[in-house]
From TrEMBL:
Span of domain ABC transporter: 2-233
Originating species: Gordonia lacunae
Alphabetical GO biological process terms: amino acid transport
Domain of life: Bacteria
Coiled-coil ranges from the UniProt annotation: none
A GO molecular-function annotation: ATP binding
Keyword Aminoacyl-tRNA synthetase in record: no
Whole-protein coverage range: 1 to 233 of 351
Keyword list, A-Z: Amino-acid transport, ATP-binding, Cell membrane, Membrane, Nucleotide-binding, Translocase, Transport
Protein's name according to its UniProt entry: Methionine ABC transporter ATP-binding protein
Amino acid sequence: MIEVVGLTKVFGVGSPSPTTVLDDVDFTVDAGEIFAVVGPSGAGKSTLARCLNLLERPTSGKVVVNGEDLTALGTSGLRDARRRIGTVFQSASLLSRRTAAQNVALPLEYLGATQRSTASRVGELLDLVGLADKADLYPHQLSGGQRQRVGIARALALKPSVLLSDEATSGLDPAATDTFLRLLTDVRDELDLAVVFITHEMDTIVRVADTVGRLDHGRIVEHGRLEQLVLEP
Ligand code: ADP
Ligand code: ADP
């Protein structure tokens, strides 16, 4: 599970005009739950994503995964901490000179896994996302939806307990979006993941979210089970 407590990000601390981009954001996502963060452009979604996967240090507040406060870790602990949260980015951000299999293998290589264990793990992961037959294709030979599925496989390579999806369906056509959302709920169920699904697309969240937080000007202004919320576009 992931617990976000009082997460605040201020850019330009100490400057004449500091900007508070995240303001005391709190939420908890249990294993097996999909929490959607929805909000318009400028609401603070990318900054939240970057604070959650530790690419950005919050000004204050905590990101706690399975009881451990990741924001309290020093640089050496960060590498380990990043393994707990897998991220699927907008437009997958795969390396173009690497095949699907080689992209999925990246996190395992960084970790120094043996070739044999990497190959078997990559095989498992490509199976999981239904792309076993595309292992040797390069990103440009895959559809946008297939690239996003490779992104999911890569995000899961190190067996994280949290999956962060950052605008991952933006730019996908409706059919590819459907496949992506179905896969997301499948892996959530199969691997008992806590999923943070960040998007500006209202119509996607009603299809996957258990709970929803509406982010506006850096604050969660509405928070609850999907069926309790009245979401306005
Ligand atoms: P979203 O992803 O919801 O569009 P962002 O997190 O990208 O929102 O941005 C939220 C606000 O924070 C915007 O007003 C943006 O201009 C501001 N912002 C983002 N990054 C920085 C930064 N490095 N310095 C100052 N302001 C920033
Ligand atoms: P092991 O650690 O021996 O692989 P697990 O019980 O952790 O056994 O996993 C059972 C199956 O699910 C294995 O095939 C494993 O690779 C896969 N699996 C477990 N956790 C994850 C995860 N977070 N992402 C992807 N696959 C996973």
